[in-house]
Design a protein that fits this description.
Strand content: 15-25%
Largest sheet: 10 strands, mixed
Number of strands: 12
Number of helices: 11
Structural class: alpha/beta
CATH architecture of the largest domain: 3-Layer(aba) Sandwich
Oligomer: single chain
Radius of gyration: 21 Å
Distance between the termini: 54 Å
Shape: globular
CATH class of the largest domain: Alpha Beta
Length: about 270
């Protein structure tokens, strides 16, 4: 009887240890499409012995997965939504890890003449007034949230736009870029997704550089006080790794055709 009890205990301890060596992380499509996860995940496995299973979704869906306790942590890029997530008790803290920027991509001929403008808001206002096709992700992602913010800053409401020129695809960054390529339309993209996108067609990067297009990525562990089953140990291990010199070297060293896709800025 004692041996049987010991066997059961050992099995339980083994199962707990196995669980501690894996975790679920919700990440944005823009992060995953960049290819950076293919660099980071093997290094995390080597350094921590940790298998990180990614759920690739938009920022809005990633936050909802965290709220439901369906993941152990999230890596997203919409600061106001992230701060609300923590303030509402769903996340324990928000740790900034890296950044890149948003860019406006469109037909190489630039029919709305945005390349010569001084600000991103002016660029979107020019697209709206020209009536040239524009593709929106329309999926409550971090990129979609940024686009909505820019339209609002331009004094415009995307909810009122005519579908004749404003096409909401309700999909990830890759699908939105594909739609824009097929329609020869303008689209807001994160720089990493644009650089790694292989079906550019006649599209070109037409506008970038406005500070308002800054694109910060942050890591948020899910709060075990809300969901006791979350793997807080592994989530903390991953957080410590993401702000380490090892992660810094890999993130800053990740390039495509000589261009850096992300810049590490963890404190």
């Amino acid at each position: 009887m004692i041996l049987r009890g010991l066997s059961v205990l050992l099995v339980c301890l083994w199962a707990a240890a196995a669980m501690a060596d894996e975790m679920k992380l919700a990440v944005t499509t823009s992060f995953h499409n960049s290819g950076l996860s293919d660099v980071l995940l093997p290094a995390i496995k080597d350094d921590l012995g940790l298998d990180v299973h990614l759920l690739v979704v938009g920022t809005g869906q990633a936050l909802r997965l965290g709220q439901a306790g369906d993941v152990d942590a999230i890596l997203v890029h919409s600061k106001p939504a992230e701060e609300a997530f923590v303030a509402d008790g769903f996340g324990t803290r928000r740790t900034e890890v890296m950044y890149n920027d948003f860019v406006v991509v469109g037909p190489a001929g630039d029919p709305a003449s945005i390349a010569r403008l001084d600000g991103a808001v002016d660029a979107l206002r020019a697209i709206e007034s020209s009536g040239v096709l524009f593709v929106s992700r329309g999926d409550d992602s971090g990129t979609h949230k940024k686009e909505q913010t820019l339209w609002a800053a331009a004094g415009l409401d995307a909810e009122t736009f005519e579908a004749t020129w404003y096409r909401s695809v309700g999909a990830g960054m890759g699908a939105a870029l594909n739609a824009a390529s097929g329609m020869n339309a303008y689209v807001l993209s994160d720089r990493a997704s644009w650089l790694t996108f292989g079906n550019k067609g006649d599209l070109a990067l037409l506008y970038a550089g406005d500070p308002v297009l800054f694109n910060q990525y942050a890591y948020l562990p899910v709060n075990a006080a809300m969901h006791s089953h979350v793997n807080t140990v592994s989530a903390m291990q991953l957080e410590n790794w993401l702000v380490s010199d090892r992660a810094k070297a890999l993130i800053n060293g990740y390039q495509l055709n000589g261009e850096t896709l992300f810049t590490f800025n963890a404190q």
